[in-house]
Structure formats: structure tokens, C-alpha cells
Write a structure and sequence with these properties.
The protein is of the alpha+beta class. Helices cover about 25% and strands about 35% of the residues. The chain is globular. InterPro entries: Acetyltransf_17, Acetyltransferase_Eis, Acyl_CoA_acyltransferase, Eis_dom, GNAT_dom, SCP2_sterol-bd_dom_sf.
């Protein structure tokens, strides 16, 4: 099978694959995605002759990673014709995507897996988890007396919502640095099926917002952000106010959210759910320029990557002017050794060196592993993008 970027002749095949595997052509999201968001030059296809048998979309975002703005490709829409499945086409497609992303100078990718067992052996590893709340409106009865007033939001509120978003994420990591275009896309996509958007203001100051939808007897929150605990209380009070209208309320939160400690009966109502995977595309590019911390002794890091030969080697990490420099060294054992998947979880801060070592996924000399642990401490990751 040949893998290459799609061209104009592939437009119908790309849309057919999406219609077959995901939303149908009549679905409002399908129509919005292909008319307002999609770009042909972001689609990589696998071809049997002239026929596109599979494809994926490399959608661009910028993440906050270790204090830097890092361009990433969000892999979505991985789709295969039914007659071409189980022949290794998508494995080859994903491997080809690594080369294409590297060509575009993208050092990191993210992917929300539908089949974890397929992507994990290819070293897309979970870097984001979230708390999922599923409860009755009456469970929020105790959240009363918060500040501010709620009102419907408009596109004129992008700046206010951006300010709330940045404050909400001030102590988080791995989140999308949203642009004006990202906010516009979020507004448009969320309101397609009747989604509602409210902003919370205390006087003239924006202090919280909600994206939600009423889906039968359930109120589903797409995104909730707030500047402090008092503002969060006001948003939960607003949700409680729907107690005569819905039977269930659902929302997602960062793993350090503490509402579960105030619920009357959180057992069975709060779940920890894996969400987003990540994979380093280019080790040298991903680590170059990282803030250096701890001992200035170099770290000899051996990475195993069966899909990307430019990563499958020894790297020398050194400190220069407070930042990491990276020298690829070819073959060698190194002071620390891990897979590209384990290294990705370290870079994102989802797992620590110590946790990976206990799991047998990171091995090496104690001094070198301690230095790597200081360089890449655990973080609280958050992301809420879906396409």
C-alpha cells in the first residue's frame, strides 16, 4: 500500500470514509466539519492503486507543554474501508503519519483512541485522564450562595471566556492554547444541535462559563471553567436549578477537581476515565529547549521506537543556558532506557520516572533516573478538544 497526502481527486473518498465510519452525511456535525473546519492538505491516505482505502486527519493545535507553546497534530478520523481492514493498512498509515508530521516539524501528536488495544502497541499512550460526574441534580443541593449572575454568552464574549479559561488552567498542563479561531469553532460546533452557552459575571468581571446541552432527561456539560471555588459553586448551583427539568447531570473535570469530596454520596457517581493519548514524533525536537532543572550532569537516554528509526537510538541530554540540548548518538546503551510511549508519558507528566520504573517500563542507573525525574516531574493535564 502507498501512503501519501490526499489531493483534490480524493475529496469524495475522504467524505465517504467519514460517513461510513463516523457521522453520516446528513448529521449537522459532518456538515459543519467539512464546510467550516476540514482542510484537504491535512489528510493522509493509504492507497491501493488509485483507490483510497484508509485515511486520517492531522488537525493542528498548540499545547502548553513544560512551559512552552508546542505545535501538535491531533490525529482524528482514522477510517478504513471495510474490505481493507485487518491487513495492516492502518498500522502503516500511522507509521507514515509520523514521517509526515516530522516533515512538517511537528514533534508531538495526540489521539483520542476508540480501540486502545490497537493504538497502545504503536506507543500512543494515555497522557490525559479525567473525572466523569454522573449524578442527580439533587446531589448538587449543597452548592448554594455563589457570587455573580449568569447570562447567555455570545461571540462577543470570546475575550472574556479566554480570560476565564486561562485562569482556570493556570495550574494545569498540556492544555490547548486556544486562538480566536478555536473559540469561534467551539461556539459554532457546540450550538449546532441546540447547545447552550452561559457566562458568569460578578459585576463587570467574568468569573465562569458553561457549555451544555439538554439531551432528553440529561443535562450534559461540554465544558465548565471558573476562576475560583466560589465561581464553581455558582456554576453548580445553576446546574442544580435544572432539577425540575432533568433527572441526570453529567460533566467532566480535571483529575484534581475536588467536588467529589462535597457530594452526599459520590460512590458510583464519579469515575476516573482515560481520555487522550500522546506520542512523541521526534525526540530531539520535543526535548530541545525544555527548561533544565536539577543537576547539570548530562543524561544518556536510550529510546526504543519500532516505528520511527530517527527516535530508536541513544540521545545525550545536556544543559546549556538553562535549557536542554539534544544530541542523537546512534547505537548505545545509555544510563536510562525506555520506550517512546513511556517517554511520552514522562514528557506530558502523566507518569513519573518512579512509577514507570515500578512498572518495568523505565530502567537505568539510579542517579540518571533521579536526574530525569527532576527534569520531568508529574503534572496535572487537561484537554477538552474532540476534533
Amino acid at each position: 500500500m502507498e501512503y501519501r497526502m490526499a489531493g483534490p481527486a480524493d475529496q469524495a473518498a475522504i467524505q465517504w470514509l467519514w460517513d461510513y465510519c463516523f457521522e453520516r452525511e446528513s448529521d449537522p456535525f459532518y456538515q459543519w466539519y467539512f464546510s467550516q473546519y476540514y482542510a484537504l492538505d491535512r489528510v493522509l491516505g493509504g492507497y491501493d492503486g488509485d483507490q483510497m482505502d484508509c485515511c486520517l486527519h492531522l488537525n493542528p493545535y498548540t499545547l502548553e507543554l513544560r512551559g512552552r507553546a508546542v505545535p501538535v497534530s491531533y490525529i482524528v478520523g482514522v477510517a478504513t474501508r471495510p474490505e481493507a481492514r485487518r491487513g495492516g493498512a492502518v498500522r502503516g498509515l500511522l507509521q507514515a503519519s509520523l514521517g509526515e508530521m516530522r516533515r512538517r516539524e511537528i514533534a508531538v501528536s495526540i489521539l483520542m483512541p476508540s480501540a486502545v488495544g490497537f493504538y497502545r502497541p504503536l506507543h500512543w499512550e494515555f497522557c490525559y485522564h479525567r473525572l466523569v460526574y454522573k449524578l442527580s441534580p439533587m446531589d448538587l443541593k449543597g452548592f448554594q450562595g455563589g457570587p455573580g449572575r449568569m447570562r447567555p454568552a455570545t461571540m462577543d464574549d470570546f475575550g472574556r471566556m479566554q480570560a476565564i479559561y486561562r485562569t482556570f488552567l493556570a495550574e494545569k498542563h498540556g492544555y490547548v492554547l486556544r486562538s480566536f479561531a478555536n473559540w469561534q469553532q467551539l461556539f459554532e460546533e457546540h450550538t449546532l444541535g441546540g447547545g447552550r452557552i452561559y457566562i458568569l459575571e460578578e459585576g463587570a468581571a467574568p468569573i465562569g462559563y458553561l457549555f451544555y446541552a439538554l439531551q432528553g432527561s440529561t443535562l450534559v456539560v461540554r465544558e465548565m471553567a471558573f476562576v475560583d471555588g466560589a465561581a464553581q459553586t455558582s456554576l453548580l448551583q445553576f446546574l442544580h436549578n435544572h432539577r425540575s427539568q432533568v433527572e441526570h447531570i453529567e460533566w467532566n473535570a480535571a483529575i484534581d477537581d475536588d467536588v467529589l469530596f462535597s457530594l452526599p454520596n459520590p460512590k458510583g457517581q464519579v469515575l476516573l476515565e482515560p481520555m487522550m493519548t500522546g506520542r512523541i514524533v521526534d525526540v530531539a525536537a520535543a526535548f530541545t529547549g525544555l527548561p533544565w532543572s536539577g543537576s547539570t550532569a548530562p543524561i544518556r537516554l536510550r529510546v526504543d521506537d519500532p516505528l520511527a528509526p530517527w527516535n530508536d537510538q541513544l540521545f545525550l541530554l545536556e544543559e546549556q543556558d538553562g535549557c536542554v540540548t539534544v544530541t542523537p548518538c546512534g547505537e548505545g546503551t545509555g544510563d536510562v532506557r525506555c520506550s517512546i510511549g513511556a517517554l511520552t508519558q514522562l514528557l506530558f507528566g502523566r507518569l513519573s520516572v518512579e512509577e514507570l520504573h515500578r512498572a518495568g517500563r523505565c530502567q537505568g542507573e539510579a542517579i540518571a533516573m533521579a536526574a530525569l525525574s527532576t527534569l520531568l516531574p508529574p503534572m496535572i493535564n487537561y484537554i477538552n478538544e474532540y476534533y
